Each structure stands twice: as structure tokens, then as C-alpha cells.
Amino acid sequence: MIVLYGYMIYWAVAAIGITYGYHRYFSHNDYKTNSLTEVVLLYLGLLCGGRSALTWAGVHRIHHAHADTEKDPHSPKNHPWYVILFSLWKVKQIPRKYMIDLIKNPRVMFFHRYGKFILAAHWITTSLLFGVNAVIINLMLFILSYVGFGILNFYGHDAKGPANNLLINLVAPFEGNHKDHHEYSNI
Q: What distance in Å separates the CA atoms of residue 159 and residue 76, rounded to the nearest whole number?
């Protein structure tokens, strides 16, 4: 039963933290919000793998600028399948132009600088309060995020480029419309 609860928690946290936070808000500026909501989005996004919104959004903006070319950091055309599927790709440097607005955001920079400490405090606190169930759920958040968004990057592209695949929504909430997203996004 804990695995089912873990999946449900993952899906909600990833939908809010990654899809509507890191992706739609920080990467694409799709909507406006207040500072408190930004903190919630940053915190929930951090729980999904421990990556900073600054680097996540910077890499995502590179992906949009150079989709499915050699400059795309996570194109399935340029990496072995397992590198994309398990989010093992690396980016040596993110040009500043892709992050300048985020660098000016003090909440983004706070989470960028102190994210590992925030994540450690979350794991310790939840483990002390909820025991082994918290450890299982925290691990599920971490693993499902990497695999889920690896599946998005792998199956959200085909020989023609970005593709829609609604099954992606099972592991990358609200991200199955990948082709539409590329065609209609702000950045």
C-alpha cells in the first residue's frame, strides 16, 4: 500500500513542483505568482531529484532553443537510450543568457545555493517523523522523477522531433503533449 501512496504523492509533487513549477513557471514564465508560491514550487521541485530550478530551467531553455540537434542536451538522437531514459546526460556549462532572469530571483538563488541542505533537512525530518514510510516515499520521489522525466525526454521525441504521447502523463504529470508544448511555449 505504501508504494501506491508513494506513487500518488510523487504524481502530485511532480505535477506541482516540476510541471507547474520548474517547467511552466520558471522555464517558460507561463503565468505570474507571488513569492510564497515560488517558495512552494521550488521546495516541491527540489524534492523531485534535488536539482536546482536555476539549472533545470537553463537546460530546458537550451533544449527548446536547439531541440533534437547536437546542441540539445538531452536529445534521444544524440545519446544512447539509457542515458536519456535514466536522465544520465550532463551539461558542461549553461550559457548565462538562458538563466539571467532566474539569477535575479533571490528565492531561486537561495534554493540553488542551499538546496542540498534543504533536501537533507527534509529527509531527516520526515524520516524521524514518519519512519521507513518516509524513506520509501522520498526514494520514490527521487527515482520516479529521474525515470519519469527520462521517459518524457525519450518517448516525447520521435524521428520527426517532439511528439505527443499521452502515456507519458503516468510518470511525467501533464507532460504528454510534448509536441504541442514545443509549438506553443513562450520560450
A: 10
Closest among 112, 95, 116 to 42, alpha carbons compared: 112
- Mean pLDDT per block of 10 residues along the chain (187 residues) reads 94 96 95 97 94 94 86 83 85 94 98 97 97 96 89 82 86 87 73
- Neighbouring-strand partners of residue 161: 158
In this structure, what C-alpha cell is assigned to residue 146? 529521474
Please provide residue 158's backbone torsions phi and psi, each rounded to the nearest 5 degrees: -130, -165
Give pLDDT, residue 119. 96
Q: What number of helices (H) and strands (E) belong to the chain?
A: 8, 2
Cα-based distances in Å from 78 to 18, 89, 98: 24, 10, 21
Place of cell 534554493: 111
Per-residue pLDDT at 59:
92
HSE-CB of 25 using CA atoms within 13 angstroms:
22
For residue 68, the SS3 value is coil
Q: What is the pTM of this model?
A: 0.92
> What is the model's pLDDT at position 78?
82
DSSP annotation of 157 reads: E
Dist. CA 109–CA 38, nearest whole Å: 12
